[in-house]
């Protein structure tokens, strides 16, 4: 790979020019005052100029992302190599605007005013004056042109395979960037919890910086991209979170009678997750530029959309060890569960009319089962043990010759218990019964292999794994084949199983989220387990009468469900107004009834009313956990001070032995 040489001196002299500096500063000031949509572009430009002027070439390296440049070069080469074939009827594809950007770069370097940039980049400047650039209407354009062109010359990685590029260039860069940048406010030595978090943040930061710079350079659009709230939330890993509400901002959030200064800390990852900024970036072009219908087979935009959908299908399949042809896109896990349960029951209803599930399933699974009961099917609801685990032996005893389907969720959404999927799958395959699992809370968080676990149907939700809401998928095994009765009539999309036009941007987002989850699952797991232990130990070391709901060993630690004796869960939720947590499933959290999941575990009603679910995720920080611990301990103590029952317990009175008077 080529190294940075003489052009640095030339371009640094050029950018140090007084006229250029004043021009850039003036335009940036004007833009900042207007606060229009171009501010993000100017910020990226200012950072680039600062990097050149100060000689901070490491910062420039962050701007000139090798991965991006390599993609530009490969796409450009592909474009030039296939252009002549277009007339022969070969379908001509351009993966994204990157090839058009690079084409524009190379075209401009052939013009007189672009010669200086080209020659400076190649280190062969022959005294060509940069004055035309300074006198032009948009001199900043050539700053970005230079960066892209020069880095294209330096990188020269388009001849290498994608795997070699990934191994040699892309993967080491976040690590190098993290250590070069130095410790963050919350970081500890390499190998620590916060170090893993920092390296993950570096990967996100590197990606976002390159994307923002490219958008800023392609100034033809007045909207440089998603430099909005999504970027701020996605980049939370780069800054110490504000946990003192008074220091957050003057903005006051007023919701349902609760006044909160600033934004509450989000610890409700089982309800939904924030969209990863890399997912947002992948989706944006399919809203604004490549907006074709993926089912349109007669023009370029339709082809591009179809390619994007099929790429996402492969990304989803790769995460669970499936074949892309086995993935059916839906609107989310609820639809996937309905299609799986009602679809199998409907297709095999003449021969098999028995379904087996558990008492702790998600409400959509339980309601689908009741729907079938009302239509003549028999449903067995298996009990679970005190930790939420289903007995494989009890399941075996419940199977009958006419059993069509077993549905057991992978990870419980309220208590985090992980069911023994491999054992259940082996039993169902042996007894020739289809096995469905609602894996909305497991996909992207725990390793899943549908072949090894002998899973026949698996439901996926996009917004549970840092993807967009409104999209999901259902894995449907092809060998041995699972037949389903479609629940939606229409155009016959998705092999006739799910009619309706596919939402390309959402599907692209789901695919990207699955790809990222596969790459970062191990780091995410270490990060989340460390935070969960920090949360649990922090609370239990300061409070007594705290119970962890669910199995302590077979659990997903991103879900920490705790019951606090002699404290009303609703009162504690109101007290924790600076921390976004819940008392159970978001789908039923409006109900004041105790959780049916906890009741199925045998938890007494008074303790079931005291549970709080803390949800931890990829972007949760140690500072947020520490703040949540402090707030929880403080409010539990406050509520217990007002509880006469707690006072009696402290005095040694056995509450259960008291005979309360009846009125």
- Strand percentage lies at 5-15%
| Helix fraction by DSSP (H/I, runs of at least 4) | 40-55%
Instruction: Sum up the overall morphology in one term.
Output: globular
**Total beta strand runs:** 14
C-alpha Rg (nearest Å): 29 Å
The tally of domains stands at: 3
Main sheet characteristics: 7 strands, mixed
Using the coordinates shown, work out and report the CATH topology of the largest domain.
Aspartate Aminotransferase, domain 2
CATH superfamily of the largest domain: Type I PLP-dependent aspartate aminotransferase-like (Major domain)
Strand order of the largest sheet: 4-10-9-8-7-5-6
CATH architecture classification of the largest domain: 3-Layer(aba) Sandwich
CATH top level of the largest domain? Alpha Beta
Query: What class do helices, strands and sheet pairing give?
Result: alpha/beta
Distance between the termini: 86 Å
What's the mean pLDDT score? 70
Give a nutshell description of this structure:
With 663 residues, the chain is an alpha/beta fold. It has helices at residues 7-16, 18-34, 39-54, 57-63, 66-82, 98-108, 115-122, 131-135, 140-155, 162-170, 172-181, 193-217, 229-234, 277-283, 285-288, 300-320, 333-347, 363-373, 392-398, 421-430, 504-540, 569-575, 596-600, 605-608, 622-641, 644-650; strands at residues 252-255, 258-261, 265-266, 327-330, 354-358, 378-382, 403-407, 434-438, 457-461, 472-476, 546-548, 559-564, 579-580, 611-615.
């Amino acid at each position: 790979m080529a190294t940075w040489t003489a052009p640095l001196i030339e371009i640094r002299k050029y950018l140090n020019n007084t006229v250029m500096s004043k021009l850039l500063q003036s335009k940036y000031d004007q833009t900042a005052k207007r606060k229009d949509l171009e501010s993000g572009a100017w910020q990226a430009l200012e950072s680039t100029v600062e990097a050149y002027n100060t000689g901070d070439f490491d910062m420039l390296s962050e701007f000139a992302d090798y991965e991006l440049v390599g993609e530009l070069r490969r796409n450009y080469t592909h474009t030039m190599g296939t252009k002549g074939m277009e007339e022969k009827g070969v379908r001509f594809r351009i993966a994204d605007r990157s090839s058009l950007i690079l084409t524009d770069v190379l075209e401009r370097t052939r013009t007189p005013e672009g010669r200086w940039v080209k020659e400076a980049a190649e280190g062969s400047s022959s005294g060509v004056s940069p004055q035309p650039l300074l006198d032009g209407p948009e001199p900043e354009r050539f700053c970005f042109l230079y960066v892209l062109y020069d880095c294209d010359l330096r990188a020269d990685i388009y001849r290498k395979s994608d795997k070699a590029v990934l191994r040699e260039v892309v993967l080491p860069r976040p690590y190098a960037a993290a250590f070069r940048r130095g410790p963050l406010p919350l970081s500890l030595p390499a190998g620590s919890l916060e170090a893993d978090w920092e390296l993950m943040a570096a990967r996100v930061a590197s990606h976002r910086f390159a994307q923002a710079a490219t958008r800023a350079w392609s100034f033809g659009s007045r909207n440089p991209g998603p430099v909005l709230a999504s970027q701020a939330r996605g980049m939370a890993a780069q800054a110490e979170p504000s946990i003192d509400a008074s220091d957050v901002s003057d903005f006051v959030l007023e919701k349902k009678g609760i006044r909160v200064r600033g934004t509450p800390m989000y610890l409700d990852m089982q309800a939904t997750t924030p969209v990863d900024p890399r997912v947002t970036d992948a989706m944006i072009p399919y809203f604004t530029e490549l907006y074709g219908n993926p089912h349109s087979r007669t023009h370029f935009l339709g082809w591009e959309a179809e390619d994007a959908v099929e790429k996402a299908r492969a990304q989803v399949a790769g995460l669970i060890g499936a074949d892309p042809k086995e993935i059916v896109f839906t609107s989310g896990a609820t639809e996937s569960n309905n299609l799986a349960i009602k679809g199998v029951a409907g297709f095999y209803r003449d021969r098999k009319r028995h379904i087996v599930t558990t008492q702790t399933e998600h409400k959509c699974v339980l309601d689908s089962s009741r729907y079938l009961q009302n239509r003549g099917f028999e449903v067995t609801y298996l009990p679970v043990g005190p930790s939420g685990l289903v007995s494989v032996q009890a399941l075996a005893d419940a199977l009958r010759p006419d059993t069509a389907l077993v549905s057991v969720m992978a990870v419980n959404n309220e208590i985090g218990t992980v069911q023994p999927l491999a054992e259940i799958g082996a039993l169902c395959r042996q007894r020739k019964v289809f096995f469905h699992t609602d894996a909305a809370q497991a996909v992207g968080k725990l390793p899943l292999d549908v072949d090894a676990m002998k899973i026949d149907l698996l439901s996926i939700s996009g917004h549970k794994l840092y993807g967009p809401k409104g999209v999901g998928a259902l894995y449907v095994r092809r060998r041995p084949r699972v037949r389903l009765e479609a629940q939606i009539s229409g155009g016959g999309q998705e092999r006739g199983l799910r009619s309706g036009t596919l939402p390309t941007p959402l599907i692209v987002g789901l695919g990207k989220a699955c790809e990222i989850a596969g790459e970062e699952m191990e780091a995410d797991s270490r990060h989340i387990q460390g935070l969960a232990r920090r949360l649990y130990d922090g609370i239990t070391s300061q409070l007594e009468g705290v119970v962890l709901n669910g199995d302590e060993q077979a659990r997903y630690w991103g879900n920490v469900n705790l019951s606090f004796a002699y404290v009303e869960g609703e009162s504690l939720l109101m007290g924790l107004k600076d921390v976004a947590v819940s008392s159970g499933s978001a789908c039923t959290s409006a109900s004041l009834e105790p959780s049916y999941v906890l009741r199925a575990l045998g938890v007494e009603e008074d303790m079931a009313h005291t549970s709080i679910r803390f949800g931890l995720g990829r972007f949760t920080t140690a500072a947020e956990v520490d703040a949540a611990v402090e707030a929880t301990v403080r409010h539990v103590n406050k509520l217990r001070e007002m509880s006469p029952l707690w006072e009696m317990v402290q005095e040694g009175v056995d509450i259960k032995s008291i005979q309360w008077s009846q009125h």
